[in-house]
Write the structure tokens for this entry.
Amino acid sequence: MVASGRRMALLKARRRFVSANKRAELNSEAALKTAEDVTRTFGQMKGAMMKLGQMASYLDSGLPENARNSLASLQSDAPPMAPELAEAQIEAELGAKPQDIFREWNPVPIAAASIGQVHSAITSDGEAVAVKVQYPGIGSAVASDLKKANWLFNMLAALYPGVDPEPIVEEIRDRLAEELDYEAEANNQKFFSNYFEGHPYVNVPKIYDDLSSARVITSELVVGSKFSDVLSWSQKEKNDLAETIFRFSFGAIYQLNAFNGDPHPGNYIFHKGGKVTFLDFGLVKKFTDSEVGLFETLIQHMVLNPDKEKFRAEVEKAGILSEASKEFSTDHLNEYFRYFYEYVIEDRDLTIDESYSQEGVARLFDMKGEFGPLMKTLNVPPSMVIVQRITLGLMGIFGQLSATANWQRISKEIWPAVDQAPSTPMGEDVVA
């Protein structure tokens, strides 16, 4: 009976292994064969710029055409490593070749990103896993790029003329440095996985510590649908998936003081019935209690008990307004910031469409628009750099899904100051 159970488990693992391999095998014609190839490909700012381009991909729908074209050049997937280079990296990190560590190993990567690539494998215990391998030398190449931050200073100075770029650049450096540390990423993933274990809709793949290191992460292999597949699903299915992502993202802020800061469709695997598997925990922002407290206070003054003067006082105290901002009326300030709360202000069903997500980009980057003069005076505290990805990233995804829900009621289930009873079938399942 035990042997039969093991055979069935291995059969299921093989099915996932084969399915993952069929869905996405990368073209290896331009494969990187040596560490020197990696340095040439990612050197001279390309590594850091590709990573920032990938981080900024959620802006695409709201930017002018010339900016979209520039961004597209940064988002290209990196060429994969040749099998022997990936094997050498695993041997250096885990002490043996992958063929000796795993029962089965696919030498052709099933995914590649800006700093590493993913292979499918089956462990000696018969479990299907995803093995993310970092390009050799990419860490030092990107770190070197980030030390020469003049290009980033110049970009921020152009976007926000009234802002001191230094603390923002430091925040971006810190977050990118963390993303290069696979041990930190694995710990982040375990942090989320432990909290959401048993959740009916949120799945975070488990980590295999004995098969992971500073440059290799081995986690449970999950097979499902891509974002492009989801776009043809029924509107109800899309709404359910959006609700899951919403609950995961905002729930983690208020329950864990943390946000997985890369809300990008490529970091999700979708399943029917509203279930979502969340991947890539390299860019996680941990908030202090006072930072989360500020978010709650702003919600109180904008949504729960609207008070324009109190809201203004809080954003001033938080350092978001500069001296130059004081010339603008409270009504003008309130109208600008109201957008970021618009979808939760009213107790009604609301569809987040692409025009809504595009407006978010305009509110942050369109210096020639209605709010341009005000935006030039605004400051961006370091803790808010990643927070902006919530609005831009999630709203960009929801816009493509035309996601519809009573976002206020769902939020009231999440906000600690309210802690409302479940308002949707999903909310009831989560509580149960």
User: Anything to note?
Assistant: The longest strand covers residues 116-122. The chain is about 55% helix and 10% strand. Confidence is low (pLDDT under 50) at residues 57-76. The first helix runs from residue 2 to 23.
